[in-house]
Amino acid sequence: MLAGCSGPSDDAAAPAADSQAQSTTSADQSEGKNGNAGKLGERFEMSKMPDNDIFVTVQDIKLGGECANGGANPGEEVDDLEGKQYLQLWAEIDVERLDNPGPFPYGSLLFPDYVDAEGFTSTSEPAFDCQEVDGHEPWGDPVYPGNKSRMYGAFIVPEGITEVHVEGRSFKVEG
After folding, report:
1. Residue 155, SS3 per DSSP
2. Which of 21, 55, 101, 126 has its C-alpha lying 20 to 30 A from 142's C-alpha?
3. Average pLDDT over residues 3-22
4. DSSP H or E run through 63
5. What's the whole-model pTM score?
6. Which helix (H) or strand (E) holds 53?
7. Cβ contacts of residue 89 below 8 Å, gap of 6+?
8. Smallest Cα–Cα separation from 86: which of 49, 40, 129?
């Protein structure tokens, strides 16, 4: 399955300032563990199939702190953050052309992977307590050919991760 995401396009959609949350990508995006460095705001093609033109632009990555748009059910939190933290992503996916041989007639974003402090790669867990961000679709929602969508995703990762992988691109992080 293919995936994509979107980021904030204006100040209202941007993550709120939070003294604990930090933009965690470094300005110098050296090659990550998977050898395919990503850069915020830079569009890349996510599909390797010749008849597909699906592009992703990761707009922002925030690690730690609170949910950008507040909690979904204040007082009824279910996310266990002991030794863990939120990973929030904003991206755009543009499905210009799609000719999948499989059963999925759309592009969508997969949950991001991360590299922990010991160098092991794992897949992030969904965060249930973060409220959706206005103007953005939930991460992983389908985007059909000829459409573009802004995506927001909130995930849980361990403290001390060093990289986030989005659709094959590595983003160095601090946290």
Report:
1. strand
2. 21
3. 41
4. strand 53-63
5. 0.80
6. strand 53-63
7. 5, 58, 60, 61, 62, 112, 139, 151, 152, 153, 155, 164, 166
8. 129
